[in-house]
Design a protein that fits this description.
- The chain is an all-alpha fold and 161 residues long.
- It contains four helices and no strands.
- It has helices spanning 8-33, 42-62, 75-100, 109-136.
């Protein structure tokens, strides 16, 4: 299948990430210039966002964002998001410069977009993980009629169990 997007969960995550990529550029411009973002032509903004989505559609699968499951989001997943977002913005910037000379783009917008993209890609993954972990593990002492016994494990890795 297409770059590791073999199952439906991977395709849903890919669609989510492309939607977040499409939102990241206009949101970064809004955070930088506020309401004056409306002065930018809608055509320019739509073309730039579409271009970034195309770049993201190529970079994100190559960045190995869809090998893990959101339920098990971890530090390596965060590093993959960091790499993919960085590469996407670094590829997008020279292409946009070549096409528009960045006439209407503030110089701080790519950096802001990078931060926004990290939050839009990483935030939902870790919120989903937190939500799943809290839902699957009952609070201590909530077992039916059984008394919870606190345990302290000493050691590292599988040997501690």
């Amino acid at each position: 299948m297409f770059w590791g997007l073999s199952n439906s969960k991977s395709r849903i995550a890919f669609a989510h990430d492309l939607l977040m990529a499409a939102l990241s550029f206009p949101l970064a411009l809004f955070l930088r210039v506020g309401d004056t973002v409306l002065w930018i032509g809608w055509e320019d903004l739509a073309q730039a966002s579409g271009l970034f989505v195309l770049v993201a559609a190529l970079v994100f699968p190559l960045g190995k964002l869809y090998r893990g499951i959101w339920r098990y989001a971890s530090i390596p997943d965060l590093i993959a998001v960091l790499r993919a977002a960085s590469l996407a913005v670094l590829i997008f910037l020279p292409i946009l410069f070549f096409l528009t000379r960045l006439e209407w783009v503030p110089r701080s917008a790519p950096l802001i977009q990078w931060f926004v993209l990290l939050m839009l890609l990483g935030g939902p993954r870790f919120l989903y993980r937190i939500w799943r972990d809290r839902r699957l593990v009952p609070p201590a002492g909530s077992l039916k009629g059984e008394r919870a016994v606190p345990i302290l494990l000493v050691g590292v890795g599988d040997e501690a169990e």
